[in-house]
Amino acid sequence: MAPTNETLVTMAKVGQPAPSFNLPSTKNLETLAENVKLSDYRGKWLILLFYPLDFTFVCPTELTAFSDRIDEINGIGAEVIGISTDSVHSHRAWLNTPREKNGIEGLRYPLASDVAGKLAKAYNILVEDANIALRGLFIINPEGILQYSVVHDLNIGRSVDETMRVLQGLQTGGLCAADWKPGQENLKA
Q1: Which residues carry out catalysis?
Q2: Residue in 108, 184, 112, 173 with CA at minimum distance from that of residue 147
């Protein structure tokens, strides 16, 4: 499939269908010819991890933290896509850089390229003058409905533990109290 940066621009709102996307990705690291599309993830929970830039300082810590726990994430029926406004060529170079040299070699999920920033804009996290995304984390349910949205300042990384807690809470379909943890009962209405 030829690389494309097509997105259906609708503004992301929790409880509404997630903005559709079809973005170049690193799914095939050798050819860079396999896009990621929202429709590819129907039937699964999807975690979108928007981050500012490749080859930075906070980004590799959080991207590799999610990768290191990908078996646990996949084990509860979820997938992960990392997204920035860098090109797939930059993504590939970073993926080929060892972790000890600030790279993300061995990352176990694809990175998507939103070069024009259209998807970041649809999720209301684009810093337009710099054409970079804030640290946005979004959870989409198997039916394609946006269920969770959190946006961080550029300097603060996301927590895999908190993401897993929220994802598992959403998967219960019930009411979860503050500080609810997997295995605890839901609130009774």
Answers
A1: 59
A2: 173
Under DSSP, the state recorded for 52 is S
Which pLDDT band holds residue 153 (cuts at 50, 70, 90)? confident
Compute how many other C-beta atoms are within 10 angstroms of the C-beta atom of residue 43. Answer: 9
Q: Please give the full DSSP string across 59-80, using - where no structure is assigned.
A: HHHHHHHHHHTHHHHHHTTEEE
Compute, in degrees rounded to 10, the torsion defined by CA atoms 34, 40, 46, 50.
40
Fill in the amino acid letter for 115: V
Residue 5 within any structural domain of the chain: no
Give helix then strand counts, H and E, for the chain.
5, 10
* CB-CB contact of 52 with 59 (8 Å): yes
Helix (H) or strand (E) holding 172: helix 160-172
| Band of residue 127 on the pLDDT scale cut at 50, 70, 90 | very high
Asked, for residue 177, whether it belongs to a domain, the answer is no
- Is 18 within 8 Å of 12 (Cβ atoms)? yes
Number of folded domains in the chain? 1
CATH number at residue 42: 3.40.30.10
- CB–CB of 66/109 below 8 Å? yes
